[in-house]
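A further point concerns the way the authors explain their paired sequence and structure data. Nothing conveys this as quickly as seeing an actual entry. An entry of this sort, consisting of the sequence and the corresponding backbone structure tokens, reads as follows:
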Amino acid sequence: MMKPGKAGSSVAPSVVIVILNWNGFEDTVRCLESLRALDYPNFDVLVIDNGSDGDEAGRLTERFGDAVHVIANGYNAGFAGGCNVGRLHSWSLPLKI
């Protein structure tokens, strides 16, 4: 649903897409690549690396740069725990209005 913005324009609500990664670098890359096709104008992508072996968080940051926010969790918190890490970090992202 659109809400009124400045000067009567409509602004799409700000959305954070949280993606969990755990030893699935190629799957996560494919997921992130698919998000490039979105035509929604107001979103951020937050990848939580849930304690993967190797440096998958670093590799994702290197590959996607500022297009995504990558958080290296350091341990596998499980699905719900990883999502909660994402939820907490999403609140610290700058609000896009």
About this structure: The longest strand covers residues 15-21.
